[in-house]
Amino acid sequence: MPLSVSDPTWYPIASSEDLPFRHVYQGQLLGRELAVWRADDGNVNAWENRCLHRGVRLSIGINEGQELKCQYHGWRYANRSAGCTYIPAHPADAPARRIENRKYPVREAYGLIWSAANDDLPFTGFPGAEGGDWFALRPMPVNARPGDVVAGLAGLAPDDQPADVMQGLSVRLGNIVYFVQPVDADRAVIRGLLAGKPADPIATLRHYNEGLTKLRDRLEKAAARKPVPEKLSPIFEKVSADLASMPDIAIPRGATLPVVVKRKWQNADGVVSFELADRDGRHLPTFQPGAHIDLHLPNGLVRQYSLTNGPGDLMSYVIGVKQENASKGGSKVLVESVRAGDVMAISEPRNNFPLRRDAARTVLIAGGIGITPLLSMSRFLDQSRLPYELHYFTRSGESAAFSSELTALHGRVERHVGLARDAIRARVSQALGPYEFAHHVYICGPGAMLEMVQEVASGLGWPDEAVHFEYFQNDKIIDQSSAFDIELARSAMTLHVPAGKTILETMRDAGLTVPSSCEQGACGTCLTTVIEGEVDHQDVYLNKTEKASNSCMMTCVSRAKSGRLVLDI
Amino acid sequence: MTITLYDFELSGNCYKLRLMMNILNLAYEVVPVDFFPGREHKSDWFLRLNPFGQLPVLQDDGLTLSDSGAILAYLARKYDASGLWFPKDAAVTAEILRWHAIADDITATASAARLALGYDYDFDIDKTQKGAHRIFRIIDEHLWFGEKQGRDWLCSPAHPTTADIACFPYVMLSEEGGISRQDYPALRRWTDRVRRVPGFTVMSGIFPAGPAR
Ligand code: FES
């Protein structure tokens, strides 16, 4: 039977021990080259062996434990999802989260790593595999046609005990099963499994290695006399445009995914944590350090929470929620009524707070619950062995969240407890120091603290581009004095927005149902596409580029500079 | 007294010495020799240093030394206070010298293929590539059984020796000679280990490895 590039059979492609931590194994199956690597969580990834950027082999990349980094240009891909998490020098310092490398199905069983060209067949092992204790022999690469290798192995059987040639290029010879990995039309690897662990493993391994070496030499001599078969040429279907294109700015379109609350626990005084996971145990979408998700609450509100996860840590998202006594609904509902086992809807992660990884020095400043995005950033910097300093200001020791996670970090982590306003200011100033080229600071915390740090930084000569912050609230005074018309393109309606009334309110008054949450231009829920007209942005959600593009706006606070706006509603 | 290395940046044999001196934390000066395209290693002034017309040449303490393997042994004996890189033990010395000879075989095959493909040298490409694969198969098997027995390096001591430095560069540069290392997983894992030796330094075509866990 000729080999086919779309053969869905599962074949072994490596031994378990070929994948030590922090190594990238180079493999091949049916003409397709694979980069195979074990992440620190034990998960095995089998990917197409090329970086999406320039096709450089990922098998010479760096396995950072949770991400694989391309040696040449520094593109990074996450464990499990193969999603690209970082593109150096990209305008937003962050790729759209949909850029994914091609993955192949993969399983680890019986001391071998198995893969297939596609997902058409479920993994079933081999007849009699279950319950057995299998011992992997040294693999033997052979420059010969896979079919000839199978015949050669079958020929090793004594006359009175003929070999049992099985499905998937495998041969059973007594207590050994040999699998032939079809590397290409003219190359194969013999992978043997011995039933039971031998008394003297080394002597046994040497014995079989010697036998297979002789067989290989015979097969290669015979192959040299035959015409060279044509190589398999897998078609590298382009990764779909949807997955591989880089949208200018990804704007969430309200798509949600269901997650189950796996765990809820009191993280610190006044902070409750939730662990959210896929209901079927699959991985969640790739995210970047600093990213947040929208969480849809039981009372219909939508609230934003930063992910605290480290790189490639996609089996669940962990968020921290501040327990506010006077809270009007948001976190109160979450803390009081949501229980482990509940199902909730979340958005895909979105990043308004991208982390630069080309900085000479990174300073992270957190106040209270603002630790959440900065914990994620610290974990990324930690994994990449990049230098950073994290300053965490809390009112009391008991209110410091994620303590054990912070203790596990290797960077400089300083906790500042119970300082007065002036003392915080002095400490921040000391931590920042005078600005130098390629230094960056990231701040997350209460509004007053954000402003104070920005002020201190600018006083020390830090330019705006080096000071990154994320608001969870819009403290600006909104100017509602303008009046203008809005044309709702999809609803075929023209409305007048008078001074003192928001676009959102005007639309609601006209009977339209439009989503909103914070109603202060901080969360992004009311984001709307603008087709025509000039927007007067007053939110803190969109970044400068997004605002300048004039292609979207927040209907809860933004107004028009032109007489008329055409909206995609 | 400064050490002077007559060096060509893209030569794996010169890189062996830069690597060793970096690991031993030695200061040295470099005299660039235009091996390609200038063929300066065959010029009169160079032949006076080394009549064999080969790089690298190293000068130290009034001595002029040639042959990368010999110089590795010299540097380790003279400057490695730990005595680990070229141990005095007779059996280990024999083992290391055996691998220095294998390093020369790698140069004659993998490096020759690279010179033929990238530097216009008139070598039989097919023959040199086949020769490299024959050697890589043996090294892979040696390293594979080594791992099984708890040995991470080419020789028996529990630490790297000059044998690992001598064999490393042209294994790493083999792709430039059209020699894939896909069939040699144990050899690939060993190159990760060499790249994690403290003091490791890179050359064009040889990348660093990420930190181990
Ligand atoms: S509702 Fe939050 S930004 Fe408009």
TrEMBL record, chain A:
<dbReference type="GO" id="GO:0051537">
    <property type="term" value="F:2 iron, 2 sulfur cluster binding"/>
</dbReference>
<dbReference type="InterPro" id="IPR012675">
    <property type="entry name" value="Beta-grasp_dom_sf"/>
</dbReference>
<dbReference type="InterPro" id="IPR039261">
    <property type="entry name" value="FNR_nucleotide-bd"/>
</dbReference>
<feature type="domain" description="Rieske">
    <location>
        <begin position="10"/>
        <end position="115"/>
    </location>
</feature>
<dbReference type="InterPro" id="IPR036010">
    <property type="entry name" value="2Fe-2S_ferredoxin-like_sf"/>
</dbReference>
<feature type="domain" description="FAD-binding FR-type">
    <location>
        <begin position="252"/>
        <end position="356"/>
    </location>
</feature>
<dbReference type="InterPro" id="IPR001041">
    <property type="entry name" value="2Fe-2S_ferredoxin-type"/>
</dbReference>
<keyword id="KW-0001">2Fe-2S</keyword>
<dbReference type="GO" id="GO:0046872">
    <property type="term" value="F:metal ion binding"/>
</dbReference>
<dbReference type="InterPro" id="IPR017941">
    <property type="entry name" value="Rieske_2Fe-2S"/>
</dbReference>
<keyword id="KW-0479">Metal-binding</keyword>
<keyword id="KW-0408">Iron</keyword>
<dbReference type="InterPro" id="IPR017927">
    <property type="entry name" value="FAD-bd_FR_type"/>
</dbReference>
<dbReference type="Pfam" id="PF00111">
    <property type="entry name" value="Fer2"/>
</dbReference>
<dbReference type="InterPro" id="IPR052353">
    <property type="entry name" value="Benzoxazolinone_Detox_Enz"/>
</dbReference>
<protein>
    <submittedName>
        <fullName>Oxidoreductase</fullName>
    </submittedName>
</protein>
<feature type="domain" description="2Fe-2S ferredoxin-type">
    <location>
        <begin position="484"/>
        <end position="569"/>
    </location>
</feature>
<dbReference type="InterPro" id="IPR036922">
    <property type="entry name" value="Rieske_2Fe-2S_sf"/>
</dbReference>
<dbReference type="GO" id="GO:0016491">
    <property type="term" value="F:oxidoreductase activity"/>
</dbReference>
<dbReference type="Pfam" id="PF00355">
    <property type="entry name" value="Rieske"/>
</dbReference>
<dbReference type="InterPro" id="IPR006058">
    <property type="entry name" value="2Fe2S_fd_BS"/>
</dbReference>
<dbReference type="InterPro" id="IPR017938">
    <property type="entry name" value="Riboflavin_synthase-like_b-brl"/>
</dbReference>
UniProtKB/TrEMBL annotation, chain B:
<dbReference type="InterPro" id="IPR040079">
    <property type="entry name" value="Glutathione_S-Trfase"/>
</dbReference>
<keyword id="KW-0808">Transferase</keyword>
<dbReference type="InterPro" id="IPR036282">
    <property type="entry name" value="Glutathione-S-Trfase_C_sf"/>
</dbReference>
<feature type="domain" description="GST N-terminal">
    <location>
        <begin position="1"/>
        <end position="83"/>
    </location>
</feature>
<feature type="domain" description="GST C-terminal">
    <location>
        <begin position="89"/>
        <end position="212"/>
    </location>
</feature>
<dbReference type="InterPro" id="IPR004045">
    <property type="entry name" value="Glutathione_S-Trfase_N"/>
</dbReference>
<dbReference type="InterPro" id="IPR010987">
    <property type="entry name" value="Glutathione-S-Trfase_C-like"/>
</dbReference>
<protein>
    <submittedName>
        <fullName>Glutathione S-transferase</fullName>
    </submittedName>
</protein>
<dbReference type="Pfam" id="PF13417">
    <property type="entry name" value="GST_N_3"/>
</dbReference>
<dbReference type="GO" id="GO:0016740">
    <property type="term" value="F:transferase activity"/>
</dbReference>
<dbReference type="InterPro" id="IPR036249">
    <property type="entry name" value="Thioredoxin-like_sf"/>
</dbReference>
